[in-house]
Structures are given as C-alpha cells and as structure tokens.
Write a structure and sequence with these properties.
The protein is built from 27 helices and 10 strands. By secondary structure, it is α/β, with parallel strands linked by helices. Helix 5 runs parallel beside helix 6, helix 12 runs antiparallel to helix 13 and helix 16 crosses helix 17. The protein is elongated and about 120 Å long. About 25% of the residues are buried.
Length: about 575
C-alpha cells in the first residue's frame, strides 16, 4: 500500500514561479539573484501558511544552483538541486528555534558557520520561528548576523515580527508575506483537483478558500478532508455539511425577513440555526459579515467581497432593495450585540433581542419621521388668531371656544397657571382674568361691528404673541423647570440656581449673582446644558456672566429656643396644640 502524502507536502512549490500569491516578493528575490546582489540576512514574516519557509528553501536552493535559468530560477537538475530535493544537502541547514532557543544552540550554530561550504557557493542557515529565541540567544547571534563570512547566508522566518528585538531587524532585509487571496487559492485548489482527478464545484472551492482565512496550507488540508468525505466528488453541500458551515441562504432569508419586519420568521430561522448546533457567536459574526458584503455591493465596490460569482450576484440583488443607512443601522445593532455577547447571561435571548430590534427599526424610523413632519406642519401652519375674518361673518360660539381652548393649551399659559397655583391663586381667578364680554354674543343685543371684532381679535392675538415672543419672560416663568431638567445629576448646582434668578441685559446676556467662588464653580459646570435647553425652548442664544456678590454678609446672632418655636409656628400653627396636648416645654 502506497503511503499517502498530504497535498500541502505533495504539491509544495519547488520554484519561485509556483509560489502562490506572493508575486512581489518572488520577483524581488529573483532579480537579486540574477544581479548577484543577495543580502547576507533575510527576515520572512507573515501569517501562517503563506509560504515563508517554502520561499526560504527555494531561495537557499536557487543561490547554490549551478545552472540557473535566465529569469533566476533553479534548474532542479544539477547536483546541488538534486541533493537539496532529496534532503541530502550538506550546505543548507534548518533550525527550529522553538526547540533550540537557548544560548548553547546559537553558540553551536556560530561554530558551524566557521566551516566553509562543501561543493557549493553558499552555506545557508534557515531559522524557523525565530521569535522563540531568548533575549540572550539573540544577543549571542548579533555579531555573527552582522558580519558573517562571505559564504554564509541567514534566512529567518517568523509569524510574530513584533517579538524580534530591533537590533536583529536592523541587520536583515525584511519581506512581509501577505494573506493569500481567495481567488488565488481557488485556482491552486482547482489545479490540485485536476492532478488528483477529483471533480468539484467552484462554489465548494470558494467556501474552502474562505474557511482557510488566507492560509494555503489550511486550504489544502480542508481539501484533503473534503475529498475523503465526498469520495472524490466535492460539492457545495458536502463542504457545508463536512465543515459545519452556515449556508449563505440562511442569512439571505434572515436579512430579507428583517427588512420585511417579519419578526416571527426571523425567530423561526434563528431557532433552526440553533437546533443545527451552531453557536450564537458564530451566527453574529456571520450575519455581520453578510451585512458588510451587502454594504460593499450597495456602494458598488463588490470586488472587495470575497465570495464566488454566484453568491456575489445574490448579494448585489439583495442590496438593491435596501439603503446604506438602513444596512448600517442593522450592522450597528449586531456589532453592539457582539460586544456584549460574552457577558450576557441568556445568550440566546440576547441574540434574539438584537434580531427583533433590527426587524423593528424601520417602523421606528417611520414613526420618528412622521412625528417630525407633524411638528414641522404645526410650526408652519398659521394660527386662527393671525388670520382676519371677513367683516360679514359674525363670531360664532364654536370658533371662539376653539380660540379660547387653543390659548389655554399654549405652553406659556400652562406655566402661568402652575405659577398662580403655587401662589395660592385658584384656577377660577385665572379664568376670571380673561374677559368674557365677546365670548358669545347675546341674542337680545345687536351684533358687534366687524371693525370692532377685528380690533378685539387682533388685540387678543397680540397679547398671546407678546407672551410667546418675549424670551426672557418665558425664562423667568419656566426657570425652575429648566433648572430641574438641566441639573438632574448636579444637586448642589440645582439648589443654587433655584434660589437665584438671572438678570437680563441687552445683547442676550444673562447675569447670575452668587455668594462665593464655590457656588460659581458649581453652576459653571451646568451652564452649557442649561443654555442649550433655553435655546431649544426660546430659539434665542444667550450668553452668561457670573458675578460674586461682594456685599458683606449679615451679622449672625444666637437664636434662643423660644424664637425658634415662634418661627416654626408661623409655618405650622398646629404645633401649638400638639405642645399643649402632650404638655411639652421648650428647653
């Protein structure tokens, strides 16, 4: 029985040309070899499975090749190339720094460097996972790396460049390997499948490329697993089942149900996903990625969507029915859900709540826009007091009662009523203050003239307008209410501002007189939100100035218990009967 070799080893590149997805790096290295400008030390860094070690081996083989091609590739036929391909070369050494990270290991390497190559031009040392070396080992390696013999070349490879000390980095030519694109991986997988006589669907290879996350080695491992599962016929459904991946159809359906505000179907679809054994975290990450792809297609930059052509067409079609602000709202909801998912006690309910909020956001936006529209209409539409009536039309009871009701519901008039109540004025006094002579015309009297009626209505309208248009009067009437709203969390500032009243001067200046600097500091902290609230209520931007009252404080004196009791009786006379019933004495 023939030994099985995994595809990652069997189809490992042997020349620069066959390296996948690193064209800029391979071109630079080939030009350096062809021009005989090979550096003394290289550092290959990047994520896993992108070809760092493979490129280091090809570079080591190529610089020792005796019959290089015109474009700087190894011939794979000379003695040096054959010995390397058979793992029998005495001039190329590989060191695993993860298991040889001590000073002694580096000291042995430095001793070997002194021996010249045998039957080759260069002696090459490949140190993999070089970031695992200890600081002492790095320091022991510095001198040799900076001034090696002319025949010694060092190629360092690492996945964590930030862990390498700067003195090592400064002595190397650094090449950053990038993640391999899905398109390049799919092409390579298709080549491997054709060599192995494996039939496949392109959508299946696209899923493998996405699952590999930029690593060609991972993609080839998944490919071998898929071949075993599908018995040599890789289909999209096989990949979905074998890799336990959520199908795109789920997300297309869920997003459509969310867009249609069908909360019931959204919950049913999510329940089906949970029953298949998928974790809520995987679902949130996948639906966020789905929304990102929809936004990219809506903005007509679909080339950044790393999916197959058929799936990309579905993204484009679904994106046509939605707007970018709406998609951003959906994405923001799931992003916040993802941020708090780990700390949620009921994780399933946490995700379901995010889905229900997303499905309800369109209705909420409609309500808010409708409310804003109605508010703007109320502001634009003229009131009945500003429209003069024809002279021939006598005033009717219904019209005048409507006008009276409108004036009562005015926010300024409401405040006046509350203020009067606080000053022990009854609502009847407030009502009696309004003249009733022209409310309803008596039947036994002659109707008033049109000119008198127009004059009376204009006067009433002007009174109302003057009350609404005087911003400072409105501030004084609503002062305590404004202070309560603006100083909800500042108790000290609220108590100070409720005791003082602003002084109004020209140029929209409000002056506040306080007793000391402590009070000045307290109200300064809340003055900006207070002025913002006043501006929203009066449409006038006010400035403020705080003055410290320099007048000397009143002379304090000791108050005896009798005087205290008399003061208490002024506010609560029932205390006297309480004292007499219990036969209490004032001490």
């Amino acid at each position: 029985m023939e030994n099985f070799i995994v595809s990652a080893r069997k189809y490992r590149p042997s020349t620069f040309k066959t390296i996948v997805g690193q064209t800029s790096i391979t071109t630079t290295l080939k030009n350096a070899i062809r021009q005989n400008q090979v550096a003394q030390a290289f550092l290959f860094c990047g994520p896993r499975g992108v070809g760092k070690t493979t490129c280091a081996r090809i570079l080591a083989k190529t610089i020792n090749c005796k019959n290089r091609t015109d474009d700087g590739e190894a011939c794979n036929q000379c003695e040096s190339c054959l010995s390397f391909n058979n793992s029998a070369s005495f001039n190329i050494f590989e060191l695993d720094a993860a298991s040889n990270n001590s000073v002694d290991a580096i000291r042995n390497l430095v001793e070997q460097v002194r021996i010249p190559p045998q039957g080759a031009t260069y002696k090459v040392y490949i140190i993999d996972e070089v970031h695992m070396l200890s600081t002492q080992a790095f320091n022991a390696f510095l001198k040799t790396l900076e001034e090696p013999p002319v025949y010694a070349k060092f190629i360092l490879a690492t996945t964590e460049k930030h862990k390498i000390i700067p003195t090592i980095l400064s002595r190397c030519q650094i090449f950053d390997f990038k993640r391999i694109k899905i398109h390049d991986m799919v092409e390579h997988l298709a080549y491997v499948a054709s060599q192995e006589n494996v039939s496949f669907e392109k959508e299946a290879l696209d899923v493998i490329g996405q699952k590999a996350d930029g690593s060609l080695r991972d993609a080839l491992s998944i490919f071998d697993q898929a071949v075993s599962y599908s018995d040599g016929n890789i289909t999209y459904q096989h990949i979905i089942e074998n890799l336990n991946i959520l199908d795109y159809d789920y997300f297309f359906q869920i997003i459509q149900h969310i867009h249609n505000e069908d909360i019931a179907q959204v919950l049913v679809q999510f329940n089906e996903i949970i029953e298949k054994g998928f974790d809520g975290q995987i679902f949130i990450d996948s639906i966020s990625e789905h929304l990102r792809n929809l936004i990219a297609c809506k903005l007509q930059v679909e080339h950044i969507v790393e999916t197959g052509d058929n799936i990309k067409k579905q993204f484009i079609e679904q994106a046509k029915t939605m707007s970018v602000p709406l998609l951003l709202s959906y994405l923001d909801i799931f992003n916040r859900c993802n941020a708090s998912y780990k700390t949620a006690n009921n994780k399933r309910l946490h995700v379901e709540l995010a889905l229900m909020i997303a499905a309800s956001i369109k209705n909420k936006q409609k309500q808010s826009s409708t409310g804003n529209l109605s508010d703007s209409k109320e502001k634009i539409s003229p009131t009945s007091t500003n429209t003069p009536k024809p002279a021939t039309t006598p005033p009717t009871q219904s019209t005048q009662s409507f006008n009276r009701q409108e004036r009562i519901t005015n926010p300024v008039m409401k405040t006046v009523q509350i203020k009067n109540i606080l000053h022990n004025n009854t609502p009847s006094e407030q009502t009696q203050a309004t003249p009733k002579t022209n409310d309803i015309a008596p039947n036994n009297k002659q109707e008033p003239k049109a000119n008198d009626e127009t004059k009376d209505e204009s006067e009433n309208g002007c009174d109302s307008c003057s009350q609404v248009q005087d911003p400072f009067e409105k501030i004084i009437q609503n002062w305590k209410l404004y202070v309560e709203k603006a100083c909800q969390n500042a108790i000290a500032a609220r108590s100070i501002l409720q005791e003082i009243k602003p002084i109004f001067k020209d140029d929209n200046l409000l002056i506040f007189e306080v007793a000391n600097t402590i009070a000045e500091k307290e109200i300064k902290d809340v003055m900006n939100p207070l002025l913002h609230l006043i501006h929203s209520e009066t449409n006038v931007k006010f400035r403020y100035e705080i003055k410290i009252n320099q007048r000397s404080p009143k002379e304090s004196r000791i108050i005896d218990p009798d005087e205290k009791f008399k003061k208490m009786l002024e506010t609560n006379p029932s205390l006297l009967s309480f004292k007499q019933q219990l036969n209490l004495s004032i001490i």
